[in-house]
Amino acid sequence: MVQANDFVKQWRDIGDDAHRVFEEVGASGWYVLGRSVAQFESALAIYWGLASVIGVASGLDALEISLRILGCRPGDRVLTTPLSAFATTLAILKLGAIPVFVDTDEQGLLDLDLCSGLLRRQPDIRFLLPVHLYGNPISSERLASLRDEFDLRIVEDCAQAIAATSNGKATGSVGQCGATSFYPTKNLGAMGDGGAILTNDAEFAAQARALRDYGQTAKYHHKYVGYNSRLDELQAALLHRVCLPRLDPWTQRRRAVARRYLADISNPHVRVLNVDTNAAPSWHLFPVFVRADWRDHLLMHLKVTGIGSGIHYPVAIPDQPGLAAGVFEMADECRKARALCASEISLPIHPYLTEQEVESVIQAINQWHPGS
Ligand SMILES: *Cc1c(COP(=O)(O)O)cnc(C)c1O
Questions:
Q1: Ligand 1: distance of its center to the CA of 331 in Å?
Q2: Residue 372's pLDDT is what?
Q3: Cβ-contact 14, 246 below 8 angstroms
Q4: Whose alpha carbon is nearest atom 7 of ligand 1?
Q5: What are the pLDDT digits (tens) for 256-280?
Q6: Could you give the residue ranges of the DSSP H alpha helices within the chain?
Q7: Contact (Cβ atoms closer than 8 angstroms) between residue 102 and residue 115
Q8: What is the DSSP secondary-structure string of 128-178?
């Protein structure tokens, strides 16, 4: 069986180091927002090339707190994508703000031309929440020019895009804030929940540090009505000392697997991502797209061949039942995003895949005939 994610193999690799970290944190006698969190934040800021990283409890919280420090208030409209983890939209809704869904392009990335047209017609919209979906970065140049033309406040959802670059720039460096997640399946995953806010702005960073801890700026002095969204020492130490040192080799391995898939998947019924020449994705996921009425057939074929797969995502966010009662707007029909929801399959891509496993995935895809 080729696993979509292989945490058992990962534990065999990191287990000894993780035990050591557990021992150290335990012996330190300090378990939430301490030295390990501060050290991890500094190390990740250097790795990412940004001034500040603020650890929080989840990627969802990182998105919500980022929007809030950029001034997003109840009733404000936020342009965003219908094709992402539900958390992207949830962050907007939790603030009482209004998601405005704009269609994606064929790669599943928010269509910035459509955004530009809408912003021209509705210049009162000030917030944008794009997602670097599958780890494939949206063009940093186009995002920056949209930001400048319309004076936008941008939170980049980098939950899938740690280490991805566009025109040599890390994701998260165009928006005033970026948000990432340390959910276990993510490229830099903890053994539990966690997330981080990324910013170059010292003022935003200070506000985020207060907001994650009940809004206090000094012990028992609450300047804001904040959150309990603290990162704990164990997760931070594990991320800093066990996972972060492995992130470069892990990313290289993901990229090598992606290169093989891109080069060797040759089934005419299977479309792969078309990646910009100046983009270096982090390959959080490796999506392929087939005709909607053939998807179940391919899913079954992969299952009987022993290959794990996923769907990211089966339902466009505005079509989720949880949004039926919610307040949101559709800038357009989001036809492309809905079509991708009906046709996407994610193939196994993780750092512990062997060459043989990669080979068997390629063979399974190339041997597939719809309807046979
Ligand atoms: C995982 C993910 C999130 C949410 O992160 P959590 O840590 O699970 O809250 C947000 N956006 C995207 C694109 C994600 O993949």
A1: 23
A2: 57
A3: yes
A4: 59
A5: 999 999 999 999 999 999 999 999 9
A6: 7-28, 35-48, 59-69, 86-94, 112-121, 140-150, 202-211, 233-237, 244-264, 295-305, 335-343, 355-366
A7: yes
A8: EE-B-GGG-PPPHHHHHHHHHHHT-EEEEE-TT-TT-EETTEETTSSSSEE
Reported as a single tens digit per residue, the pLDDT across 80-134 is 999 999 999 999 999 999 999 999 999 999 999 999 999 999 999 999 999 999 9
DSSP 319: G
214's torsion region: left (phi>0), alpha (psi -120 to 50) or beta?
A: left
Residue 58 Cβ inside 6 Å of ligand 1? The answer reads: yes
pTM for the full model?
0.98
114 CA to middle of ligand 1, Å?
Answer: 24
Ligand 1 centre distance from Cα of residue 218 (Å): 30
Helix (H, G, I), strand (E, B) or coil at 322: helix
Average pLDDT score over residue span 333-360: 98
**For 243, which DSSP code?**
I
Q: In a mutational test of the pocket of ligand 1, which residue from 61, 88, 155 has the highest number of ligand atoms less than 8 Å from its CB?
A: 88
Q: Is 290 a pocket residue for ligand 1 (Cβ < 6 Å)?
A: no
Question: Does 88 contact ligand 1 (Cβ within 6 A)?
Answer: yes
98 forms beta bridges with 77
Ligand 1 contacts CB of residue 84 (under 6 A): yes
Say how many residues make up the chain.
372
Tokens of 94: 């939790």
Q: Measured between alpha carbons, how far is 243 from 367 in angstroms, rounded to an integer?
A: 36
